[in-house]
Amino acid sequence: MTEILLAILTFAGLFALFLIGKWVYAHVSSRYQCTQMRKEHFEMLISQIPYPVVIRHHKDLSKIIYCNRPAKILFGPSFESEGSTKLFSEEQNKEIIELCAYIQRTGQQVVRFEKFKLPHGQEYDLQTIRKRIRVLSNDYIMTVSLNVQELIEAQKNAEEANKQKTAFMESVSHEVRTPLNAIVGFSQLLEYAETEEEKKEYIDIINTKAEHLNKLLNDVLLISKIESGMMPYEKRLVDVIPMLKRLKKTIMSQAEVAEGVDVILESFYDYFEVEVALVWIEHLVSNLVLNAIKFTSSGHVKWGVIYQQEECIFFVKDTGIGINKEDQAELFEQFEKGNSFSQGTGLGLSICRAIMHKLKGSLGVVSNEGEGSFFWASYKPTKAPTRQINNRDYKEIEHLLDNRWRGLWYAHEQGELKLYGKQ
Length: 423
Description:
The protein is α+β, with helices and mostly antiparallel strands. The protein has eleven helices and 15 strands. The chain has helices at about 1-45, 70-75, 80, 90-105, 150-190, 195-230, 240-255, 280-295, 325-330, 350-360, 395-400, and strands at about 55, 65, 110-115, 125-135, 140-145, 235-240, 260-265, 270-275, 300-310, 310-320, 360-365, 375-380, 385-390, 410-415, 415-420. The strands form three sheets. The protein has a seven-stranded mixed beta sheet with strand order 7-9-10-12-11-14-15, sandwiched between helices. Strands 2-1-5-4-3 form a five-stranded antiparallel beta sheet. A three-stranded antiparallel beta sheet has the order 6-8-13. The chain is elongated and about 125 Å long.
């Protein structure tokens, strides 16, 4: 009987130990999983910070236990394992560790400027923010670094953008005021006109200035939409030949073509189907052609499209007044007219430049004063156009395109249009 009782007690004890062990295992496992989740959640939060972040060990402050991607980009991929020994001198490292110990002890946040030098010799000025953070009952030291050079550059860019915006608004207000004053002035004079002929003259002037003002406002809105990214950008397969023919009718209805000037659409293709942002190209071509018509008093304005060296190239050739070399660089700037006595808003070619910037293409001009001008704009489509060449001779245009690098042009590089060929 005693033996049976002893066996029962032994079994009960073992079962109790089993239950306690299971509970302890579940509790420890749960705490471990919770700890891992907290650690992963913490690292995920740190990884989202866009600035370099470094976490130092709570016991050994010389040891770096974590750094996010921006820190690895700035300090190098081996920074997490090697620490700061290769970036700072021994004296600087000692000072940093003492500073981290002070922050860990007092809990104060410290902000200061530091210099460091990468192994390949490049130096950086950093603004560092060090702070004690508690993670899983331990006090770690987190350092956030801000590249002072980048901050200064960003401030300069912001100031430059603000200056450009101010200059643009001043130019717009001046350009708007000129036709508006004419409209107001001649409207008042209309009241005192004595003859029908005089009234008609004033009304014609008012209508002309109103059209100019309307064109100016439309151009300002267009260039603002392009530069702000608000203009719809949709690429689709289009046969550009019918599009150019339709565009010619629109241009001829808008332009004041001098007597004896032929506006010729050069159709080298029966069809030319290519992936294109249609609205953007229509604005580009119409501004180039209207600009050529405006400065051509005799001869012709020829324009069209050609595919050469994997590029779609829209071109406009005129026999107008031409442009001297010194003035060509300013042609594509806002409110530059090339001729102060000419009609127009001075925004047409700057709109073309803004469009080619967005299309990541090139834009240029070849011209001599008194010899006419040749404007071109090109971009690389994702796929070669489906096209059928007709029997028309296009050697003249090919020759002009082959020699276009003798002029002035903008080419898209590293996210911006860079100017080449400036005299």
